[in-house]
Amino acid sequence: MLDENIVANRSLPRLSVKKKSWLMLLLATLGPGLTVMLADTDAGSIITAAQSGARWGYKLLFLQLLLIPVLYFVQELTARIGITTGRGHGDLIKENFGAAWAWISVLTLFIAAIGALVTEMVGMVGISELFGISKWIAVPASALILILISCMGKYKYVERTLIAIGLLELAFIPAALFAKPDYGALMQSFVGSQPLNDNSYWLLIAANVGAVIMPWMIFYQQGAVVDKRLSEEVIKYSRIDTFIGSIVTQLVMVGALVVTAATIARTNPNTSLENVNQIANALTPFLGSMGGKMIFALGMTGAALQSAIVIALAVSWASGEVLNVRCSLNSSWKEAPVFYAFYNGAIIVSGLLVLAGIPLISLTIGVEIMNSLLLPLVLGFLLALGWKVLPERYKLQKWEKIILLFIYVLVCSLGIFTVIQLFR
Q: What class has domain 20-423?
């Protein structure tokens, strides 16, 4: 039986469509999709894209564009389920498949989230070191900022803050132009031969897939549309929100890849990055020492801070749903102590792990590969819920099922390949 706090939270009025123009409805609906997509381009994802550019030049550029529809279809289904049922992802798994599977899904989320949060924190350390600031100052300061943002008292204020911070990531797009890429070589990457016989190339493909679809994204967006109280009448606007976000996040990934492909890979091909300073220094010849650092710092700060909040919120929503306790940003700390305890706990634990000292680049690639291994379970639950819980009007069409099954097979295949390569 559901806790009365959750029932009360779900009974709150949803977004009304009466006497509102399509533009007002679109603006009122925008948020969950754009927020989760900006969070998708986190510090780990940017470093993965940068490593791809440094190691293989423009060759993996086509993959970043191919992942736009993959990202859209997965997250659109997530939002559709959340809006039509008014329930979070963990909540629905528990109801339809039992508490044991719900806890397994949350444990999967927790493993992926802690790994991702550590990369966000280490990303912030990398930025602070560019300006001579010790990690012993950067990590506590970052953790304090993340905790204070959750104290705003309403979902809409947190969402607006998240979007504002996340938009700093767009700095990577002009950075790619400043790097003066070779447009001929860039276009050739779409039609030229690919090093398909190289295992390291396939591992980076797996890492990029793991970087673009992450377990916590599904939990976050479904929890966000519920907390924002979106109604079925605005589903079409929610799809626009998700589509815009899918394009924006992959353009940021393209920017990060092009920056290192146009600089590091051009002067020193097949380079493996060892620290974030190499990415910032790649822009130095074009923007000067301080200019390169500032653009990189803006983009990485937006990616790391915004993503850390989204990841921690995904853990909080999922844990609260499985425990049947109030889990909403519209609640105070006193009203939802468990929700905020999980949020703050995830941030504090990741901060302590970073202070213990962890190499960023190898950790980041490892986390993204781990995501690709965990995705079959997470996507499996999402597809099963999509088949089972959607009301008749919003059920998946045959063509949608085919596309989603293709995505699932692709992700599972990359996960299996990754395991084989790691053991070899």
A: mainly alpha
